[in-house]
Amino acid sequence: MTHSTQTTSLREQLKNPMILFIIKAAAVYIIWELLNWFQMHNDPFHSVWNGMKSAIRDNIVYMSAGILRALDYKLIQYNAVIIIEGSAGVEVGPACVGFGLLFGFAGLIISYQGSWKSKLWFIPIGLLGIHTINILRIVILAIISNINNDWVDFNHKYVFNTIIYIFMFLMFTWWVRYVEKQAEKNKVITS
Questions:
Q1: Residue extents of the structural domains in the chain
Q2: Residue 133 and residue 163 in contact, taking contact as beta carbons nearer than 8 Å
Q3: In whole angstroms, what is the distance from residue 130 CA to residue 132 CA?
Q4: Would you say 36 and 110 are in contact if contact means Cβ atoms under 8 Å apart?
């Protein structure tokens, strides 16, 4: 096989949407890891990074406490800890923010084909969905803690992780179908 044949073959392979998706997704993952490394080794960036995480966490705590109060629960709230009176309560830690999930979802959509115009409305919808599930997760965990604190760990680790990943899968599937329908419309229009 000659060099020009290999080059042509490589170019043809790079036209394959699945290969392009994998390359883009790998690039997004590398960017995520670089950002993570950079924030750990650069104090000003680390402060900004933690500030963003804290703002999201504070919103989760504020919204969760508001929903619980609206449901007539008597709360004790201290920073990121929400306690329904008489229970052990829940703490919204840094990992509960779902920063990696938010970035991962956005990265999947960015990596897949489709117009940037469409991505700019779809990504915020998905991020808002993930954030809303996170808020509801804290509300439900606080209620579970009030009923039986022994159930909190299982639900936190397994049930809610499963729910969030199913949501992300469904959103990504919705995106893929949307892109395919848009491509079909464009084929019909250009035919």
A1: 16-180
A2: yes
A3: 5
A4: no
Residues 6+ apart with CB under 8 A from 154: none
Counting every residue, how long is the chain?
191
For 75-96, the pLDDT digits (tens) are 999 999 999 999 999 999 988 8
Residue 3 Rama label (left phi>0; alpha psi -120 to 50; beta): alpha
HEC readout, the chain: CCHHHHHHHHHHHHCCHHHHHHHHHHHHHHHHHHHHHHHHHCHHHHHHHHHHHHHHHHHHHHHHHHHHHHCCCCEEEECCEEEECCCCCEECCHHHHCHHHHHHHHHHHHHCCCCHHHHHHHHHHHHHHHHHHHHHHHHHHHHHHHHCHHHHHHHHHHHHHHHHHHHHHHHHHHHHHHHHHHHHHHHHHHC
Q: Above 80 in pLDDT, residue 1?
A: no
Give percent of the chain above pLDDT 90: 68
